[in-house]
Design a protein that fits this description.
Elements: H1 9-19, E1 25-29, H2 36-50, E2 54-59, H3 62-79, E3 100-104, E4 107-113, H4 117-121, E5 127-131, H5 144-150, E6 159-164, H6 173-178, E7 184-189, E8 196-198, E9 204-205, E10 215-217, E11 224-225, H7 230-235, E12 238-241, E13 249-253, H8 266-276, H9 280-289, E14 299-300, H10 304-308, E15 311-312, E16 325-333, E17 336-344, E18 350-359, H11 365-376, E19 378-380, E20 386-388, E21 391-395, H12 402-409, E22 417-423, E23 430-432, E24 442-446, H13 447-460, E25 464-466, H14 471-477, E26 480-487, E27 490-497, H15 504-517, H16 523-531
Parallel strand pairs: 1-6, 1-13, 2-4, 2-5, 5-6, 7-13, 15-25, 16-21, 18-25, 21-22, 22-24
Antiparallel strand pairs: 3-4, 7-8, 7-12, 9-10, 10-11, 14-26, 16-17, 17-18, 19-20, 23-24, 26-27
Helix pairs in contact: 1-2, 2-3, 8-9, 13-15, 14-15
């Protein structure tokens, strides 16, 4: 809508808290349809015009940053005479793909993506605004929220504003910060008894088969209130702090039931709810985006005891007959190397044959020599021959140890020992790096796709385990939980650590699967080779050269 911005009643106190110098942190747990983006842009305009400072706005992705500046910040500034000329717009167009930067008298505004840690390292800011923090993934350098907050430490009068629609209750960034705040809720008075209540979905009811007639029922007097009273209820509403002892951190929780937008009418929300209830994933989306609540059980968490009970009597010293190829995945820690060894049959069924820990510093040549010996090993196969490791993926993702991993793998590439780096997102399971510097030396592994497939196979019992594996192996294999997220309407999978668990063996499994993906095995030929008795190697025929013996070339 064109014209001057007029805040809804619930927005006023949020805006006041953002502008209050005595409040350092503001956290907003929000749904869609309450105008938070407009409120955030208004706050930016207020700081630019009235309290110029270095300002950093952080969104999940670079596409989000571009869309926010082009669709929200620029139109609002251009349409407002008082601030139209304050942003110089001297950033080059080419910079927008990575970072958007504007200068104004007394300060600057930078809009950056959370997924790129370098964006968060290069700024010192007084005002930090972070939107959709539950859509931000942990990077190689840690939680982007914590990285961004460190950029404000130089300012004793800093302001940190965090807002998001919540997702998984156990891992939500915004819900965790709301719990540290004074936890304000928005309450509306009942038109009949005057009692104030937070509007909750459990109090919205409708006649059977008529969701469009949904109404609010007061928990105190039990009276029905229809949609036409909502404007009055919201305008007379109030924020109440449920943890008033907390000072300096204002937390706000609001849902779409108080939104005055037409598409947030109670009847329309009830119709949406009925449609969403048919699919568990759609229902989670409704709970997250409309009710602004976190969902429990929003993903797959594996049972380590169940996996432990599936162990079978096989291993490197008793390889199953149908195993026709072997791969290894190696995780590099600073005080040890860990390697999982997987066997594979014709159908691609994984057999976890062993997990080996090599103690020793990552920069000690003896540690790598011991790994080399392991990767050269060959084991007796039931068909009569010997079998060894066909491909190995060694993690080079740690920036500290990458050069050491590359120097180990490079000379052994003919043995298909590959240095790999894991990357999130919808990318191939394994592919050569496109980097000119690393091309031919480094492979990129799509860890999300492999983990999703791995979790699916584990849940279905489609992975076999050796009885040589200890209980700790299974605890680490279940060290992450698979969550379902929705990004711009598209379902994506994310993996978050389970509190108190390590996950080295899970990483090793991912790398071993990636190594198998790189193989091309002729199973008939391999089976034939394994049936043959091992023979002593024959000496190669040596052709004498006249030139080498001092003669002349003819």
């Amino acid at each position: 809508m064109s014209g001057r911005i007029k805040l809804y009643r619930p927005q006023v106190e949020i805006a006041d808290a953002i502008g209050d110098p005595d409040i350092e942190r503001v956290t907003i747990v929000k749904p869609v349809r309450v105008g938070f983006t407009t409120l955030l842009t208004g706050a930016i305009a207020g700081f630019v015009a009235n309290d110029p400072s270095p300002i950093l706005a952080v969104l999940p992705t670079e596409a989000d940053c571009r869309d926010y500046v082009v669709s929200d910040i620029e139109p609002i500034f251009d349409a407002s005479p008082a601030i139209r000329t304050l942003l110089s717009g001297d950033t080059k167009e080419g910079d927008r793909d990575t970072m958007l930067s504007r200068r104004f008298p007394g300060g600057s505004l930078k809009v950056v993506a959370a997924k790129s840690p370098k964006n968060l390292r290069r700024h010192n800011v007084r005002i930090l605004l972070m939107d959709e923090v539950d859509g931000m993934s942990v990077t190689a350098e840690g939680n982007p929220l914590l990285l961004a907050e460190k950029r404000t430490l130089s300012f004793p009068d800093r302001k940190i504003v965090v807002g998001s629609t919540p997702t998984d209750a156990d891992t939500s960034n915004v819900l965790a910060r709301y719990e540290q705040s004074d936890k304000r809720i928005f309450e509306c008075p009942c038109p009949h008894c005057g009692t104030f209540h937070e509007l909750r979905w459990g109090d919205i009811k409708w006649p059977e088969g008529q969701p469009n007639k949904a109404a609010w029922w007061c928990p105190s007097c039990g009276t029905e209130t229809d949609e036409r009273h909502k404007l009055q209820m919201v305008e007379n509403g109030r924020w109440r702090a449920t943890a008033p002892h907390v000072k300096g951190h204002a937390g706000f929780r609001i849902n779409a039931l108080v939104s005055l937008l037409e598409n947030a009418a109670w009847g329309k929300l009830a119709v949406e709810f009925i449609a969403a209830a048919k699919d568990p994933e759609d229902l989670k989306t409704f709970i997250n985006t409309i009710l602004a609540e976190g969902t429990n059980g929003g993903g797959t968490e594996l049972d380590e005891s169940d996996l432990l009970s599936r162990r079978e009597p096989f291993g490197l010293e008793a390889i199953p007959e149908d195993v026709l190829s072997i791969t290894a995945g190696v995780d590099v820690q600073h005080d040890r190397l860990e390697a999982s060894i997987f066997g594979w049959n014709r159908a691609g069924l994984p057999h976890v044959l062993a997990h080996v820990i090599i103690d020793g510093r990552w920069d000690d040549d003896e540690t790598w020599a011991e790994l080399d010996d392991l990767l050269k090993s060959r084991w007796k196969h039931p068909l009569g021959g010997n079998i060894g490791i066909d491909a190995t993926a060694v993690d080079a993702g740690d920036g500290v140890s990458m050069d050491k991993v590359l120097s180990f793998c490079g000379p052994r590439i003919r043995r298909k020992i590959m240095a790999i780096k894991g990357r999130n997102g919808n990318i191939p399971w394994i592919a050569a790096s496109r980097s000119a510097k690393r091309r031919g030396a480094l492979w990129i592994v799509g860890v999300d796709g492999i983990k999703a497939a791995l979790f699916n196979r584990l849940a279905k019992g489609e992975i076999r385990f050796s009885d040589t594996l200890e209980a700790d192996y299974f605890e680490q294999l279940t060290g992450e939980r698979m969550l379902v997220r929705y990004r711009r309407g598209t379902k994506v999978y994310e993996f978050v650590p389970v509190t108190g668990k390590r996950h080295e063996t899970l990483d090793c499994a991912v790398y071993a699967i990636a190594a198998h993906k790189s193989l091309t095995i002729n199973h008939d030929r391999r089976q034939s080779e394994l049936r043959q008795e091992p023979q002593a190697p024959t000496r190669p025929r040596v052709v004498q050269s006249n030139w080498a013996m001092g003669g002349e070339l003819s």
